[in-house]
Amino acid sequence: VSRSGSGSSSGTLWDPPGPM
What is the pTM of this model? Predict the structure, then answer.
């Protein structure tokens, strides 16, 4: 899984808004 932290579609279901 590649969760960058977009808040919606960044890999998986659990994708919280990361540091941008």
Answer: 0.10
